[in-house]
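::Amino acid chain::
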Amino acid sequence: QVQLVESGGGSVQAGGSLRLSCAASGYTSRRRCMAWFRQAPGKVREGVATFATSSGSTYYADSVKGRFTISQDSAENTLYLQMNSLKPEDTAMYYCAADPSFSCSRWPAAYNYWGQGTQVTVSS
């Protein structure tokens, strides 16, 4: 089993920064792909960034490219999302997800394990 616990959300003004953390436990073979998703009220859940633990390769949604950075600590126990230059449209519940696949997908349906989410609110 894999457990994921997010933290670090909060309220910030536009242009500010936040760093989200996702504490992961369970077999590392079941979380070869780690990802951050977000869901705003009335909208579908969208992939923000993915991280392949074996290769370190990353993917970013166009809307966050150049502003957000996904990373993982060397012990592979914590996933981070550094969010800079935040915009009001970044306001959403942010979720950490994990999957045993070697090839990381940007689609929520591909992920087996999910955290409870952490709220990010950006005011203009």
In short: The radius of gyration is 13 Å. Residues 9 and 120 are 5 Å apart (CA to CA). The longest strand covers residues 18-26. The chain has no helices and eleven strands.
